[in-house]
Amino acid sequence: MDTSEAHAILESGASGWEKRKRKFLPYAYLSPTLALLSALTIIPIATVFLYSLVDNVIVNPNPPVFVGLDNYEEVLTNRKFRGALGNTVYFALVSVIAHFIIGLSFALLLNTRLIGNKTKALFRVIYILPWVFTASIIAILWRLLMNPHGVINFVLLELGFVQEKMEWLSDRDLALNAVTFINIWAGYPFYMVSFLAGLQGIPDDLYEAGRVDGGNSWQLFRFITLPQLRPIIVSLALLDFIWTVHQFTLVWMTTGGGPMRSTEVLSTYTYKAAFSSHEYSIASTLAMIILAICTFIGIFYVRNQRMADE
Amino acid sequence: MVGSRAQIRRAKILTWIALLLGACFAGLPVLWMVASSFKSNLEIFAYPPALIDHSFSFSAYLAVLGDPGQLRFFFNSYLVAILVTICTVVTSILAGYSFSRYDFRFKRFLTLIIIGVQSVPPITLMIPYFGLIVWLGLYNSYTALVLTYMVFTLSYAIIMMTGYFNTLPRDLDEAVMIDGGGSFVTLWRILVPISLPGIVSVGVYTFMLAWNEFLFALTLTRTNDMRTVPIGIHLLMGQHSFEWNQMLALSVLGSLPVLILFLLFQRYFIAGMSAGSIKG
Hints:
heterodimer, A: mainly alpha, MetI-like fold, two-stranded antiparallel sheet, 13 helices, 1% strand, flat, B: mainly alpha, 76% helix, 0% strand, globular
């Protein structure tokens, strides 16, 4: 019996009850997911939105007062907020660009035919290493290396690149770049792995044809590899931008946003507003602004994923 | 276009140099961390630095493993990560089955929501969670961690499971249905056993996400007996005198479970990692 016949039998055999059951079943299977997501994302987001519109929430003994968009005005005109926003954008943009370059270079290296497969497998494990470690451990690791008395300063001093011991994480002018560097180190393997999968999916015929047409390696890369990887590049960059804006642990555990707010990003700023100064209305407003930024980028991500599906 | 022998040789040498430089960038920091965890606390920043010095010992590891408070962090991390993994795998199998095998009215909309959840910042959810979890009486409990972790593990898991089920032909389940099996039987007896590779991918990836979580573990627990390894490291950092070697030993021990899982299930891990960007 082939499938079309089977379909016919299934359809004709379906009574009214069966039809209703079939309509209801997909939702039944989804019910745990829907329950969890509505309880722990949709309702909380609605709550945070409400908090952002009132004053005196949670801790204040006075009853909450509806203030409309006043909190937003207060946050958006605040110099500290603009500093944190600027730092976040810098942190995220530089990370995304560097992740892309390092991730693609490593993927191309690991995809070469010049080296044996066993050797490549070994290097692949080494290259993925940073991704195995959680953000708090990566923070410890780099605080060890970037310590003024640490090994990085020793090497740079010996080689004559610097004249004195640098305070990588506690100098206002260096800290943001130092934290960004750490985030770059921590995040490139995700790109590398995705690019490797993407590179292996490019049919060899394309390169053959390119070579027959007399293309050199750069041209093959420019006109075959890059366009073929384009959908992956776009979704990686968007997803990574969102994740870097989410990043809290790494900044919190390396610099805590300091010195003098020079590494303050939106997530650490929000955390402090909520749990250090207990300004929950302001924190909620900040949380809504971060959500808006991420949703805006998320829309492009979802559209890109949809196109890849169709 | 075939290069001459000399050209190929040169390309090979250049590739090796690049590979080794890359390995230094990725591997040396890790090597330094591991080596430093065997030093005494006084020698951590010794001048000139040495990878291994006369103070080499396992004392930092013994200190961590001999401290019931720190072992508790490991117990908590394992318990929470395993519970999250089990709940996520089961829930995502059910949801993936629904998305893959049924057409229903809000399918498109719900898919959008599931993908969209990935872009919701944890910090946005944290403020209402604090109130919600306290209100539910779950503050400082494993339940609170398991439920909140699932919010960000579930979305990937469902996307991956749906993708995996989509690769399996529908004829398989329809044959069982005709033989009188219900849809639940079909899922459990037929689809789940042959989807084992996909389920393993979801499982190891979820375990890793849960093992590494920091923000919710920090804000939703209060007492040390409920805290996980990443928070344990954070607590050690907050102390007045930095016990560097112990912090590093705890970090190495805390990375081992994920590292071992990764080495055992490399292929599945990589499938999990690239699922979000490639398949969606």
